């Protein structure tokens, strides 16, 4: 008489066991998914950290480059006669072109040196070799004449004597004359980089350039 009651109890125990196994399986699956999510999150955090590290590195390099440019530009603007290179060699005659002087100044001479030099080296050559300076320009007519004269060479720009002083952040000429004229490319000098001034062969517009760039130059003496 007891056997009929035992069978349902056995069936109920089997079903319960199956439900427990399924729950355990689902729980294990969820734990695995959570583990994968955590691992993926860790990888993403690692990638973000790496990206931030790259950005910080690039920013540091940009700042370092900016400081290096400023340092080299400041060096390039040095024109103290006592600091002239002892081993400086004057340009050969075939590397220069004599330009007509300024009206009303018979003693003024202009010389285009075709050999590209850094700004400082160019200024030192003007001082040591010709007892002059890089050219200063004070009106449009003279600027146009210089542009026409230098257009014969196969170069995009030439150095003129303008530069930005580190103190006061103002433009000056290497010969000490007043800064009373400008013929800038649109957007400059405000948006330009570099602390030295170059004259463009086409159009005669001025542009800020890094003083360590090597360009032909015009001496006035």
UniProtKB/TrEMBL annotation:
Keyword Metal-binding (UniProt): no
Ranges for domain C-type lectin: 108-220
GO MF terms, alphabetically ordered: carbohydrate binding
Signal peptide segment: 1-17
SMART domains on file: CLECT
Pfam families, alphabetized: Lectin_C (PF00059)
Domain of life: Eukaryota
Calcium as UniProt keyword: no
GO biological process: one example: immune response
PROSITE patterns: C_TYPE_LECTIN_1 (PS00615), C_TYPE_LECTIN_2 (PS50041)
UniProt KW keywords: Disulfide bond, Lectin, Signal
Name the record gives this protein: Proteoglycan 3
Gene: PRG3
């Amino acid at each position: 008489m007891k056997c009929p009651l035992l069978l349902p109890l056995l069936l109920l125990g089997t079903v319960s066991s199956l439900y427990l196994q399924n729950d355990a399986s689902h729980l294990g699956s969820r734990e695995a998914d959570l583990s994968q999510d955590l691992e993926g999150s860790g990888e993403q955090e690692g990638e973000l950290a790496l990206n931030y590290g790259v950005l910080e590195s690039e920013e540091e390099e940009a700042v370092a480059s900016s400081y290096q440019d400023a340092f080299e530009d400041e060096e390039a603007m040095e024109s103290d006669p006592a600091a002239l290179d002892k081993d400086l060699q004057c340009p050969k005659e075939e590397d220069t072109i004599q330009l007509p002087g300024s009206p009303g100044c018979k003693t003024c001479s202009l010389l285009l040196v075709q050999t590209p030099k850094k700004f400082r080296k160019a200024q030192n050559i003007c001082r040591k070799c010709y007892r002059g300076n890089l050219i200063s320009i004070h009106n449009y007519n003279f600027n146009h004449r210089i542009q026409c004269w230098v257009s014969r060479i196969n170069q995009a720009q030439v150095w003129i004597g303008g530069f930005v002083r580190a103190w006061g952040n103002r433009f000056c000429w290497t010969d000490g004359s007043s800064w009373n004229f400008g013929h800038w490319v649109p957007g400059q000098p405000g948006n330009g980089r570099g602390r030295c001034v170059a004259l463009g062969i086409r159009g005669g517009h001025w542009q800020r350039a890094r003083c360590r760039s090597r360009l032909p130059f015009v001496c006035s003496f």
